[in-house]
Design brief:
This protein is α/β, with parallel strands linked by helices. 51% of the residues lie in helices and 9% in strands. It is elongated, with a radius of gyration of 35 Å.
Length: 539
């Protein structure tokens, strides 16, 4: 005899055996006991939650000769015929392959004939949202006023695609995702009946991987048992079969990301690839891990919604103190976006590697969360006394810059000659070198800055114009201005008074750009001539 899959072998045959849908089971049993049976039902919900199973139980219950508390006896002739699939009173239709108008017309013709056995003729239309518009229109009249001996049970996973005219003619029942506890309990019960030994941790992981679907859970369990036939099912064995990753790996990966160790993250990913872990499942599981971390950090009252062991909860609490909320939200955003991209990609590993590098390199992004992460990283380095400058000779200046910034800008003015108006041109020509003397993130903000002067007064003050308000607020701080003035003194040898302005501000509309002939020559590495254009205007 051929093997029967677990989800078929242990499919519930009575309402009492159904798990996780008590609100629907109770309502249907009460209707059957009170004789208040409807003519059209709509069962909607995610896959594997019991829609078709309950539809078949209901079909037997309404035709059962000896119902017990609203459930079918499964022993009378009507129940046995339906269970064996030979009854002409229960017609199952797959709307995915029978979705035309002609198929519905056949139903309209058949409903005129009374049932040959039992009291009701039950039509179960699965995936009803796949019907064409014409088929829905053809079904409307029959669905609204069917013969008294006809019951329609429509099942769908996408209720949003059902026309309102159909919805209004049916009793709607929404099937909920089944909880992990309920699925785990059912799996443990069935494994005892099958004589299979398994760790509780392994069973709960299978239940969580099923994502609320009892059928998926039984299919995954069937797969695990078959792979390790005759052996005890352990947590590690389940991970091997499903190609998933232990939470200990997620913990190591998070700590590498917090340390900005991109190479370490890539090495961990390489370990998972060698062990045959599936990249899409890894992304989903790591996103879930970050979600749990976010809930733990947000509030102690949310611990009851986390399906984790006491040991894992303790580890989550420890790691929640190591990461800030903005950074954690950024991590979740990156991997949530990745989960939508990786499904259809042929280069899944490359996408995951890019995402891990983005976790470790917030400077690759320009949004506000990345900016906060970069500032936090800079502050940590300064607290530990690590130089933040990278270019030769600049690291020493970066370490001493904080102390220099506290000193008034006028302290060194007597030792260095003040810049004359003509010296502003040299500052403009050497602007790139000046910017490179500063420390991140100031250096990054100054890349887009434009040095200008006041053409009306002719004063030697240097105005640094920024187009981004956030950047302007960051740069326009005494210590940052002092750092920029120090860089100007280092490169040009003259002291310039710097003022930060935001582009478009009304009080500085008369600022003019400093000529850049020499700068252009440096960029193109060839002679440059600037021709006067009387029709052009400069700010």
């Amino acid at each position: 005899m051929s093997y029967t899959a677990l989800y078929r072998k242990f499919r519930p045959t009575t309402f009492e055996e159904v798990r996780g849908q008590d609100h629907i089971v109770t309502t249907l049993k009460n209707q059957i006991q009170a004789g208040r049976i409807g003519h059209a039902y709509l069962f909607c919900g995610t896959r594997g939650t019991g829609k078709t199973t309950i539809a078949k139980i209901l079909a037997r219950a309404v035709n059962c000769e000896n119902p017990k508390d609203g459930s079918p006896c499964n022993e009378c002739a009507a129940c046995r015929a339906i269970l064996d699939g030979v009854s002409t009173n229960v017609i199952e239709i797959d709307a995915a392959s029978n979705n035309g108008v002609d198929n519905i017309r056949e139903i309209r013709e058949e409903v005129s004939y009374r049932p040959t056995q039992g009291r009701y003729k039950v039509y179960i239309i699965d995936e009803v949202h796949m019907l064409s518009t014409g088929a829905f229109n053809a079904l409307l009249k029959t669905l609204e006023e069917p013969p008294e001996y006809v019951i329609f049970i429509l099942a769908t996973t996408e209720v949003n695609k059902i026309p309102v005219t159909i919805l209004s003619r049916c009793q709607r029942y929404d099937f909920r995702r089944i909880t992990i506890d309920t699925i785990a309990g059912r799996l443990q019960e069935l494994m005892e009946r099958e004589g299979v030994e398994a760790e509780e941790k392994a069973v709960r992981y299978v239940a969580r991987a099923a994502d609320g679907s009892m059928r998926d859970a039984l299919s995954l369990l069937d797969q695990c048992i078959a792979f390790y036939l005759g052996q005890k099912l352990t947590y590690d064995k389940v991970l091997d079969v499903l190609g998933t990753v232990d939470t200990e790996v997620f913990s190591r990966l998070l700590r590498r990301a917090l340390d900005r160790d991109a190479a370490g993250c890539i090495r961990i990913l390489e370990e998972m690839v060698v062990r045959g872990r599936e990249m899409g499942q890894f992304v989903n599981d790591f996103t879930w891990y970050l979600r749990n971390l976010l809930l733990v950090k947000s509030s102690d009252e949310l611990e009851d919604v986390l399906d984790v062991s006491t040991e894992n909860l303790r580890q989550l609490k420890e790691e929640s103190t190591m990461v800030e909320l903005p950074a954690l939200m950024r991590y979740i955003r990156i991997f949530s976006d990745l989960s939508g991209q990786i499904r259809y990609s042929s280069q899944k590993r490359i996408l995951v590697e890019i995402a891990l590098i983005r976790l470790c390199r917030p400077q690759m992004e320009n949004d506000s969360s990345s900016l906060l992460e970069r500032i936090r990283t800079l502050e940590e380095k300064m607290e530990r006394g690590i130089p933040v400058q990278e270019a030769g000779g600049a690291a020493h200046r970066g370490a001493d810059m904080t102390e220099q910034a506290r000193q008034p800008a006028e302290a060194e003015a007597p030792a260095v000659q003040k810049a004359a108006p003509e010296d502003l041109k040299r500052i403009r020509e050497q602007w790139r070198k000046i910017v490179n003397q500063t420390t991140p993130p100031l250096k990054i903000y100054l890349q887009e800055a434009v040095p200008k002067y006041d053409g009306n007064t002719g004063e030697s003050r240097l105005f640094v114009e920024l187009s981004d308000r956030t950047a302007c607020l960051y740069v326009n701080r005494p210590e940052k201005i002092a750092e920029l003035e120090e860089a100007i003194r280092t490169v040009v040898g003259k002291a310039a008074q710097v003022e930060i302005v935001l582009a478009g501000e009304g009080n500085r509309r008369g600022l003019s750009e400093i000529p850049v002939e020499e700068l252009l020559r440096e960029e193109v590495q060839m002679p440059v001539e600037i021709e006067d254009d009387p029709e052009s205007e400069y700010e």
